[in-house]
Each structure stands twice: as C-alpha cells, then as structure tokens.
Give the backbone structure.
Amino acid sequence: MSSHLRSRNNTFANLQLERSAEQRDDADWLEERLCSAKSRFIVLRDDGRILVTGDQRALRGLDPFERDRLVRDVVPTYLGSAGGSDRFLLRIDATQGDLVAAELGVPFMNLRSAGVSLPAFDAGLFAYALGLANWQARTRYCANCAAPLRFEAAGHRAKCTNPQCAMEHFPRTDPAVIVIVTWRDACLLGRMPRLPPKRFTTLAGFVEPGETLEDAVRREVFEEAGVRVGASDYHSSQPWPFPASIMLGFTAQAEDPAIQVGPELAEARWFEADQPPLPHDRDGMRGAGEPLGLRHIGMYGYRRDVLLRLAGLPPSPLERRECLEQLRALENGIAIGVVEWTGEPVIEVDTAADLEQARAALGEEVTR
Ligand SMILES: [Zn+2]
C-alpha cells in the first residue's frame, strides 16, 4: 500500500476536496459561490468548536439564507468544493455561537471528539478549517514591521497594510514526527507527566531547523526515552491543527532496548504482546492475560498484530466489534491511534450507528 493510501486511513486525513487555490483572488468567481444555494458555511467558534447536527454525527453547515439571517457580518473564508457544493468557513465568537446554537437547536463539538464521531470527510474538513482559523486568529500584525494585516485570497493570505512594507504572510504548518519504535515483538510507549498514570502514547516531537525527518525521529526517541534507533521508515501523515502541525508518522527499529527516561516523560516502557507491560504494573489489572483497554484518541503508528494482541480482543462479540472498529484503519500492519492502558475495556458501543460503521469498515469480520 502506498503512503498516499495509508495517509487516507488516518483521522483528519481523508479530506478529498477541490481547494481551487488559483481562483481565490477572483472576486466574481467567489461571489457566485457565496450566493449559490448549494454552498454551505461551516461555523467555528473562537474556542475551536464547530457546529454539528443534533445527533452529533455530521457537520451542520449553514445554507446561504441561514448565513444571511444569523451571521451576516462575518467575513467567510473559502475552503473548497466537494460533491457539487462549495464550503466556506465562518469564524464567530462565543456570543454569536450561543445565538446560532439556540436558533438552530444544535450543539458545537471539539476536534478530538469529531475525530471519532464524525464521518472522515467532515472530520477532515473540520481539521482544515481549524488549522486555517488558528492561523487567522494569530495573524493580526506584520512580523516584519508590526503594522496591521488584511486578509486576502478568500482568507488564505494576509497582506501588510503598510505600503512601504506590503509583506505577504501565509498559513504555516509545523512538521512533527511521531514514531512507533519496535524491539522484537515489543513497542516503545511513553507517558507524559500530564497524562493519567496508565495512559501511554507513541513518542513524537517537532522537527528542528536543519534536520531531516529521520534525524528528528532518532533525536526525539533518544531525548525522550534514551533509546537508540537505527533504521526508520516513513509511514503516513495526518493534519494536526493543535495549533498548526502536520504529523509525519514513522516506524523505527531500536538498536538496543535499554531505556533511560528523559525530562519530557514521566515514564517509558516496552509494551509486549500477550502479557502486561511489566510484572510490577499488574496491580491495576485483573491479572495477567486480561484484556487491556484501548482507546483511539489521536495519531500514532502502531503494529497491527501487536495492537490486536495488546487489546486482547475481549471475548464478548460487542467488545470485540468495538476493538475492531477502533482498529478499522489498519490494513497494512500499522494502526493510527493512541493506546490507553486501563486494565479494562474502555470503549462502549452506544449507538446503532457505531455498529453500522464498524460493519462497513470491517466487512464480514463484523457480525451481530
Ligand atoms: Zn509589514
């Protein structure tokens, strides 16, 4: 499988949208789309939450009439088109947000929740919109001369209003690497101090100037866990607008399993299949061999076979289905997700739609 297809499996990464970047400066072209009855205006509050449908299963875009009635004064940003419908972003404040939510009787949702509950396209559109909105919110004065900026190109470029400067500013994306390091059948996971005691994640960090992605992988793993890695390979990528990153997923092999935890982590361990990570950590579990909890929260590379064994595939069909649903992105041996080791299954199927989604993703593996 190519990295293109692998990336498509990642949360926030399946946004198949025509962005029409070359048309953004064409006022007539834009006006036509602003007025089209088929256009939809997605609504993002300044706290990063987006308007969704009442059942919280899709984005709730405003049609042009609703936009006119509820948020007429907000300048729209063009996002792109899909399925014959153009999508715009409206950034609103809390007061406007409360008004829209009350008028339409629908809620707002944050991006992490959207990653697990919205369709892939909607989650991807949200991530795109949030990344752009984060940039717009923080791009108010020229970094060159400190004069105010003015947005152009349908919200995708900021121009300095000082004619002597006139510098143009564009949205930036900061590369970060995330890596699953393996040693034989074990995977290296770490826990940041702010995470709960049993939540471990793959290691990640920002790429520094003058550094290749592979060098960043080696440096981050050594800084965080004291583990030397040899070969590493690119896997796939994922938009990560927290606030302005792209996650570049890698796999890597450790040269030696010795761990020396650095200042960024509270702990780091090798997680092996079919057994608790370390004997003295069994206290919070019901005993060796019990299934470990799994929760899909964000991004990581993870070997599918190890994850499945780590998950223990709980015996009840419902639990098994849910685990499989969490792992539905894994077609090529790598999962994208966060492992949460809780000592018990943490996912519950709460709606019929969850089951339908699992079935659709897994085909005959899922049976009622
Ligand atoms: Zn300037």
